[in-house]
Design a protein that fits this description.
Blueprint lengths: L3 H11 L31 H14 L10 H19 L1
Helix pairs in contact: 2-3
Amino acid sequence: MTSNKRANDEVDDQTTGEVLGAEQPDPSGTVKDPDDWVTGDEPATGAQKSYLDTLAREAGETIPADGLTKAQASEHIDRLQGDTNTQAG
């Protein structure tokens, strides 16, 4: 049985330096505009709809879910996150 520290060290040796959830965004510019996504016009995912529903309720908005695409959901989420961060701060 490998200790957690040793297991973590082994994982660290295999990483490429990319970190998800870091305090600062990735400076490599890998974030794409939702309009440029290859899958942007596919239907929004269940997770997107659920999170968007939560944000919209907090903001007192309603957003039609019919025909909502991944890109549109992402844009609404970005906008509402900005709105809720402004209200909370």
